[in-house]
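Methods — Computational structure assignment.
A single polypeptide chain was analysed. Its primary sequence is given first, followed by the predicted tertiary structure written as structure tokens.
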Amino acid sequence: MRLQKINSKKIKRAIICKNVTSTTINKHIKKTYVPKAGDVAIFRVKEIGKHTRIQSVGGNNKYILPGDLVMATFGNRYATGQMEGYVPDTYHTTYHILGQGGAVGVLKSMHLKFEKVGPTTLSLVGYIVNEKGDVVNTKYLRNEEVVKKTIPLNANAKVILSLGTSMDSGKTTSAAFLARGLKLAGKKVAYIKLTGTVYTKDKSMVRDYGAEVVLDFSDFGFPSTYMCSTDELLKLYKRITAQIKPYNPDYILVEVADGLLQRETHALINNKKFKDKVSGVVFSSQDSMSAISGADMLTKLKYNIIGVTGLFTTSPLLVDEVRQSSNYTVLEGKDLMSKEIIDTLEKKINYQNFENKMAINS
């Protein structure tokens, strides 16, 4: 079977393929091989729909046009405000771009706001293979060490979760604002986006607001985390935190994508191993009712709610509703970005630790 070398100059490579070095393509197995999440392939653009660009390995967005060749990976996607799609178990004549960072699969559903434009469609040219002829998979590449520093570990680093009611509720913005406030308070901050679909915009924002180091699942080859097992996510979390530790952070902000009812998010927040390492939660919401109900749900799971925040805090009326109808602390953007936020965090965390000790001794 004859394999072919590709001319990399003719390929637009998505950022999820940043660690792929092979330029060998196998076109003969495209109809027989069953792809897995992370498998790397070359696709030809058929028609432009929602995605007019891909995020390239340098981080910039490149326009794509019909006939262009794109290197991307198969991946699943869950995005309530955009689309749902899956890695197929059979060959298809048409595939879809599910995420701008390079996740490709077969569309199952799409938000009605994109109904007219539809998805960007692709055809499969062939799979990228290594010197043994095996299909390259980004999740199993031997990733180089992300962190080069050798700073002593801060054993007292506190983990703060950024959770929310749904996609676009304000989780990343809240994490970025909090990073800003903590930096002004003289604290070192690390940011982890644990779940989602590959696209580095969120990491860039939190870094620019003050995080010392930012990492996410895609740094470890995951085009997305949708349909991953809880065990796989916990192992991924362990790998990411191992890379974070040498930076000696005082606070580790961990964003978990989508809402509390989403498959992976729901599994993580109900997992004791994950929950036991969390010092507190900043909860984002689009409206007052979901801010309270979501925080109530987390409180029942024994999470320490630092405060509620998110898009609803842009409306003084919604802020008043939460304050009048609950005892949760409302954290507006100005609160999160103030150096005094450290006082709120330490007060809430110390009080929670005191209550835990009392419960153990009672």
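Note: Residues 144-151 have pLDDT under 50 and may be disordered.
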